[in-house]
Specification:
The chain has helices at residues 6-19, 37-49, 63-70, 73-77, 81-89, 110-132, 146-151, 156-166, 174-181, 183-192, 277-284, 311-314, and strands at 27-33, 53-59, 92-97, 137-142, 197-202, 205-210, 217-219, 224-225, 229-232, 240-245, 249-251, 254-256, 259-264, 267-272, 293-299, 320-326, 341-347, 353-356, 359-363, 366-367. By secondary structure, it is an alpha+beta fold. The chain has 2 domains: 6-178, 3-Layer(aba) Sandwich (Thermophilic metalloprotease-like); 182-367, no CATH class. Strand 3 (92-97), helix 6 (110-132) and strand 4 (137-142) form a beta-alpha-beta unit.
Length: 369
């Protein structure tokens, strides 16, 4: 796909002008994989036009696989001074995933990935804190590749149409598209806030999460593209019950599917998966906070209908909820800290129900409030 595709230009305009609102003098880190070159270049141009100071950081195809193959433990624990500087000083970060092989890390021993995750945990915590304080703006998106298309069981051309459509990059007025599309998400976030408890029931699922005093944040295209959810950090010790996650996900380069978690007093006490169980269990043992739920999110994007094995998209599906083990976003009032933040998606369109203090908010994937 060429950078001349107007959808690529429109997506770049959305990322720079709407999502991160780059202004004159902003230091902007643009990170991505080489397969995203058309979008990286378009974003770079938009940042320059906005008066920002652009820093482009591109990973080569195969670089991550080479890193995990050859790096010693000492190298896995090393943090680049550039990464440290960026987390503490950049005003904006725009990151673009463009994997050409979503399974290239499947053979890496999971403890090597969790070691790296532990090492970078402090960076993630610092970035989340600066973002919560309004000092750091960030957005993550994908660039359509054959690898993502095959995970979604689509042709590349169909996946491009689907992806750019989901990002509203086909809208004639791309800069205001997300504001218009997000009114309902904002309304639902306002409706749920101030309650005490959410209960989710679905096949294999009956779980209660305390939300007293927590803030629900409507996601309107500022941190993720595409977007469409509202989320909070549940009260850490309140989560009770069990949940089955129906949509498979590719996490850390390997498929994890058929996940079931059981919570007592807010902690995962039992975990299993049909695929990727060893990796899941290692992930949950990364650190003290990895077995606590850091996020409850409720999807509102009905333009994304089917699972794609890519959580950025699947967690937004209208009629699903997702729960993330690990770190919570401080702006939600969540207090859990962890190097892990792994989202898993539970589909409520299969006879599920979402109740808030006993009132049905959503049934069979449709909002009824």
């Amino acid at each position: 796909m060429s950078g001349g595709d107007t959808r690529v230009q429109n997506l770049a305009k959305i990322l720079v002008g709407y999502s991160t609102k780059v202004k004159e003098g902003d230091v902007v880190a643009i990170d991505g994989e080489s397969a995203a070159a058309p979008l990286l270049l378009a974003v770079y141009e938009e940042v320059l036009k906005a008066g920002g100071q652009a820093m482009l950081n591109v990973a080569l195809e195969g670089q991550v696989a080479a890193y995990f193959k050859h790096a010693s433990d000492k190298q896995l624990e090393w943090i680049s001074p550039f990464a440290e500087w960026m987390v503490d000083n950049a005003d904006v970060r725009i990151a673009i995933g463009a994997s050409t092989n979503t399974r290239e890390l499947s053979g890496v021993p999971p403890e090597r990935q969790t070691l790296r995750q532990s090492a970078t945990g402090d960076l993630m915590t610092r970035a989340m804190k600066r973002a919560a304080e309004g000092e750091f703006r960030w957005c993550y998106t994908l660039f359509p590749t054959s690898a993502y298309a095959s995970e979604a069981e689509m042709s590349l051309a169909d996946y491009e149409d689907f992806y750019f459509g989901a990002c509203l990059a086909t809208d004639p007025e791309p800069l205001t598209a997300w504001k218009r599309a997000s009114e309902e998400t904002t309304r639902l976030a306002d409706w749920i806030e101030g309650h005490e408890e959410v209960r989710v029931t679905a096949p294999g699922t009956d779980i209660r999460l305390g939300i007293a005093g927590r803030k629900f944040i409507p996601c309107v295209g500022d941190n993720n593209m595409p977007d469409g959810e509202f989320f909070t950090g549940p009260v850490e010790d309140s989560v009770e019950g069990e949940v089955s996650f129906h949509l498979p996900a590719v996490i850390g380069g390997r498929e994890v599917s058929g996940v079931k978690l059981r919570f007592e007093s807010g902690r995962v006490v039992d975990a299993s998966a049909e695929r990727g169980e060893e990796y899941l269990l290692k992930l949950l043992d990364t650190d003290e906070g990895a077995r606590t739920l850091g996020e409850l999110g409720i999807g509102t994007n009905y333009g994304i209908a089917n699972g794609t094995r890519e959580v950025l998209l699947d967690e937004k599906i209208g009629g699903t909820v997702h729960m993330a083990v690990g770190g919570s976003y401080p702006e939600s009032g969540g207090e859990n800290e962890s190097a892990v933040h792994t989202d898993l998606v539970c589909d409520l369109r299969l006879g599920g129900k979402l109740e808030v203090d006993g009132v049905v908010m959503q049934e069979d994937g449709r909002f009824v409030v």
